[in-house]
Amino acid sequence: MAKETPDGQEKTEQPTERKLSKAREEGNAPKSMEVNSLAIFFFGIVIVFILREYISRSIADLTIYIFSSLDKLTLNVNLLQYFAIGGALFYIKVLAPFMIILVVVALAVGFGQVGIQLSPKALMPKFSKMNPLEGFKNKFFSKEPIIETIKNIIKVAIIGLVSYWLLSSVVLDAVNLIQFSVSDIVDYMSRHTISFLWKVSLIYAVLAAADFAYQKFKFKEDMKMTKKEVKDEFKDVEGDPTVKSRIKSKQMEMAMKRMMAEVPKADVVITNPTHYAVALKYEPEKHGAPVVVAKGADRVAQKIKEIAKENDVPLHEDVFLARALYSSCEVGDEIPEKLYRVVAEVLAYVYRLKDKKKKTIV
Fold this sequence. Notes:
name from scop, 2 domains, four-stranded mixed beta sheet, two-stranded antiparallel ribbon, 6 strands
């Protein structure tokens, strides 16, 4: 069943690239902590396996040193401080390579899951998360903590059962360790510990793979959008269709006014006679051929003819020429060469009419 938003709308649409990109900028990406834990666990075992002799020998030497001198030591504050500092330095020396490598592994696995993405927004403090009431609500009254709790119970139960099965025989054999030297005991413990950890890591790998698949699925479901969200995002990116339509309508209206303003300056308007009207103007000093200054079909054509009559611009009826000019020219274009002769005859006729009219007036 599709998720619902607080206003009752279902999230049925796949997330857009813009929403996924925005989520990454905010540090929100599918990531499984189990994969991180598995990587740290696995590489920890590898490091222990590689350094097992060094670690075993260091622990054995420290153990022998402490227990072999217990009967000769006088207990006091200075001695305790000495052993505390020595022990701390010992563990730093032994565990330092361990910890450095594991930190690098943790960072590498994190980048491997989500890629290298600088997310300043994710580092910014969110005061809404500091609200104790909101935190209490999210902790105890949301679905996510319940799912995480169930996952952890299942994980602990599986690993616990497998661990019990693997260690039961090892614990029984450990009874015989009393007759071994300290070095042999440490060696026995390290061998069986590594063997145990290898086997547990395989179980953990299965759990981590399952959790990674779940996190990918959950992220995809969480990122789904309602139809309204998709529509709103499209408006943000492409612009509101209503506003765009109004702008386009206004632009066409302004272009129409500019075009109609050129009709009175035309030399002639070619008509067919009802469907098309094309106004032409010829200025030899500017253009090599007559230019279309206005054109239109149906109601626009009627308007062009009306303005032409009001301004004494000659109308010439020619069905073929009107259609040819309308289909082959845009406003501002020179007429095509194939129509030169026909248009020249029309203009010559128009100019003769104008000359006659002038002589008559005179």
